[in-house]
Batch of 4 targets.
Target 1
Amino acid sequence: MFEQTFTNIDDILRKDAGCTSELDYTEQTSWLLFLKYLDALEHDKADEAALEGKAYNLILAEAFRWDTWAAPKAPDGKLDHNAAKTGDDLREFVNDKLFPYLAGFKQRASGPNTIEYKIGEVFGEIKNKLQSGYTLRDVIDRVDELCFGSQTEKHELSHLYEAKIRNMGNAGRNGGEYYTPRPLIRAMIKVVDSKIGERVYDSACGSAGFLCEAYDYLLAKPGMTTADLKTLQTRTFYGKERRAWPTSSRS
C-alpha cells in the first residue's frame, strides 16, 4: 500500500544535494509524515467532537496546517496549484516560519505529556535539509497521497518505517540503528511478563517496536477494566531516543 510511495520519495530525495544517505532520506521523510499524520489526527478529533456536539480547537494555527501550506485543495479535491507554495517560497516558509513555530510549542506547552510538547521536541531536534523547494514540493505531493485512517494502514506504515531504520544501519556512516525483529521482541516481553500498573521504559526506543508489542501483550490480558485501560494508555509506556521523537504513554 505505502511501499511504492516510499520508494518514489527516496528516488526524489536522491536528486537533492542536501540528502546524501538513507539516514537523510528517513529523517526528511519522517518530519513530513509526522505533520501529515498530525493533520489526520486533528481532523479525527474534530469529527468526534462534532458528533458529540462539542467544540474542538485545532492545535496548529491555520497558516501552519497541512491543508493550508502543504496541500491546499481546490473545490474538486485536487491540489490547488495557485495556492500551493513551491520553489524558494516553500523552502523559506518551512525554514524561517514553520520550523520555528513548531519548535516553540515546547515552551508554550502546559506539560511534557501533551501533544504540544511532543511537537516542540520533534522540531527542536530536526531541520529541513532539502536545498530545493521544488524537490520538497515533489515529496510533499507524494506524502499527501498517504492515508492513515485504518489500523491496517497504520501497521503497514510502522513496518515500512522499521525497514527504513534497518537500511540506515546498512548504509554505514555510524548512523545505523539496530533493529530487533518482532518475534524476538515478543519473546522478550513474554519473559518479562509486565503487569498492569507497572511502567514500561525503553531507553533506545527507535520506532517504539518494544513499546507497541508490550501494549498489545498487556491489552490481551484477561480481566481488563476501564481503569486498567486508562492506566495502560496514559501512565504505562515511556521511551527515549537520541535524535527521535520522545514516546510517552502513546504507543
Target 2
Amino acid sequence: MITDSHCHLASSRFADDERGDIIERAVGAGVSRMVTLSTCLEDVPLNLKLAEHPNVMATIGILPCDVHNAPDDAVERLAAYAGDPRVCAIGETGLDYFHPAPDGWEETDFRNRQRDFLRQHFELAASSQLNIVIHTRDREGRGSFEDALEIYAPFSDRVRAVFHCFVSEWELAEKVISLGGLVSFGGVVTFKNADLVKEVIKRCPAGNFMLETDSPYLAPEPLRGKRNEPAYTMKVAQFAAMLRGETIEQLAAHTEATAEMFFRWRNDSA
C-alpha cells in the first residue's frame, strides 16, 4: 500500500538477527516496498543481500559525509553494480555543509570533493538510466541545496532527482519540481515545530513527492527520539493525508504511482 522510499536497513543500529523481523513488521503495517540506501562502498553488499527479499530494493552511492574515506575511483566501482536487478536508483549522494570537514581536510577542499562526487553520481545515473537520491544539509543558509540544484540542472533532461527528507520552504521545493525532480517527506513532518514543511506538503502537487522514514533516524511523533523503522512510514502517511485533506487510500494511490515511476523496480517486487 505504501513505499518507504528511503531507509537504511544495513545500518549498524539494526542487528543482523532482527532485520528480517523489521522487514516483516513493515509489510504487516502496510508498507509493501522498502528502498534501502547504500552510503559507502562497504555497505553495498549487505544492502544488495537485503534486496533479495521481494519487498526490498537497494541503491548504490557514497554519502557526502563519507567522501573523504572513499577512494578516488569509488563511483567507478559503484558502476559495476548499476545493472544489478536489485538496484533501483543511485544514491545516497549529495552535499553536506552541516558537518565540519574531517581532521586533515580544509573546508573548501572537502566541499569541492563532495561536489565532484555528486557530479560523478549524476553521470553514473545518466549512463545507467537510473534516477538519483540527494541529501543536502546546511548549518546555516541553503548553500548545499543551491549547489546541488546547480549540479542537477545540466542532467535534468536525463535524470530525475529526489531531494530526500525535505524540511525547507515551498520556494525550494518549487525549484526542485521545476527541474523535473521530486521531494520526499519523512517523520519530521509530524514534529510540532515543523511548520515550514507542513505547509509544503499541503501545497505539493500529487505526483511530485514520496514518503520515507530515513530509518533508523528521525522517528515520527509520538516515537520521536526512538529508533525509527520502515513500519513507521504508515504514521508519516497518515499524518500527511490528514494535512492534505485526503484519505490514506488517496494518498497511497498517488505516492505509490510516483514511486513506481521514479525507481527501477524488479518484476518480482511486491
Target 3
Amino acid sequence: MSTQVSGVIVASLTPFREDGSLDKAALRSHVDFMIESGVNGLFCAGTYGEGPMMSLEDYRDVSQAFVEAVHGRIPIIFQAGAPSTAQAVEQARVASQAGVDYIAAVPAYYFKHDDDSLVDYYTALSQATDKPIFVYDNPGRTGNPISPALFERLIRIPRIVGMKDSSDSMVHFEKCKMVAGSDFNMIIGSDDFMLPGLVTGARGAILVLANVLPKLFVDLWNAFCAGDMAKALELQFNVLRIRAVFAKGPYVSTYKEGIRLLGRNAGYARRPLRPLTGKEKSDLESGLRKVGVL
C-alpha cells in the first residue's frame, strides 16, 4: 500500500441514533455520498467523529462499519490517540484489525507531558500496528502541542508517515513542513486554512465542512491543482463565510443539523453534546440561506 495521501479528506462525522448507538445505515449513506462527491479519503473518530467519547468496543464497531462502508474505494485514516498509552495502543490495534488504512493519534492528553514521554507514546503506537501512522497535532484539545523540535524526533519513528496539523497556525505548519521535507504527508487540519496550507506545501486537507458540502472542497482542490488561484481563493472565501454560520451553534450537532437541512442523515451527537434548540435550528437555516447553501 502506498503511504502517500493527498486531496480532500473528510473529517467524518459518526452517525449515532438518539440513544447513542451506532446508526450503520446512516453511516453507509454518508460514506457513499462523500465518495460519490469525489473526496479522496476519510479521517474517522477524530474530534467531529466523537472519537474521544468512544469505548474500545465502540472503536471496534465504528472502525469495522467504516471499512465495510468504504469497501476499499478511498483510504481511511482512523484516530486512536487517548489519554493513556495503553488505551491508544488498544484502540490502534482494533482499528488496524478492522482493516483501516492508516492510524492517526493525537498526543496523550489531559495531563501535561514532556517530549520524552510523547516520543515513548508514539513509539509504542508504532510497535502496536503495522499501519502507517499520522501524528495529529491539536493543541487546543490536547493541551500538549507538538513543537517543531518534538516533531523532528517523531518523524524518525518507524511507520510515522504524516501529520495532521490543527494548530491553527500557518507559521507552525511551515516550520514543521521545513523539518519534514518533501516526501512526508503534511496535511492541513483546518477548513479555514485549506488554500494557504496547499500553497505552503500541504498534500491535502482534513475538513469538517466537507461532511456538509464535499463538492465545495473538491472544486477548491481541483482549482488549485489546475493553477486557477483566483477561483481557488474565491472558494476559500466562501468556506469562511459558511463556516461562520456553523460556528454559532452547538459544536458537532450543528453540522449534523446542516446535513439534515440538505436532506441527508448524519444522525445525532452523543451526550453531553446536545442537539440544537428550535431557535438555533431556525438561525442555522436562515444563515445557510443567506450564504447560498439552501
Target 4
Amino acid sequence: MYEQLKLDNQLCFRLYTAARLITQAYYPYFEPLGITYPQYLVLLALWEKDRQPVNDIARLLHLETNTVTPLIQRMERQGLVTRVKGEKDSRQRLVCLTDMGKALEEKAKTVPTCMGNMLLNKLDNPDSLTQIIPALDKLIKALQ
C-alpha cells in the first residue's frame, strides 16, 4: 500500500470528519428551534443583514446558488423567510426574514456560547481552538 493513500494521512479526511462531527454536535441545539445546520447558516447571514439576494447569501456561505435556492425554499415553507422580487431587477430574488425568522434570533443567541463551551470542555488545550481559526481561514482563502 502507498503511504500517501492511507486514510490517516489524508488532510481532507480530517477536515471532513471534523466538519461532520461539528454539525452533529449542533443538532441538540437546533432541534428545539426546528432548523438544520445549513438553515442556521442562512439565518446568520440574514440576521447580520436582512433582505439579501440569493446570490449574495450563496457567496457568503461559499456555496452554489443551486444549493442555496432549495434550502431557502424549504425555509420559506417553514415560514422563516420570504422571497420578494428585486426593486431594480424583477428577475432578482431578495430573501427577507419573516417575524418568525426574526424571533428565532433571540432563541438562537445562546447556541455559539453553548457550542464553544462544549468544545472547550473537550479540549486539553483551550487555546488550540482559537489557534485553528486563522489556519482554517488561510486554507479556505487558498482554495477559493
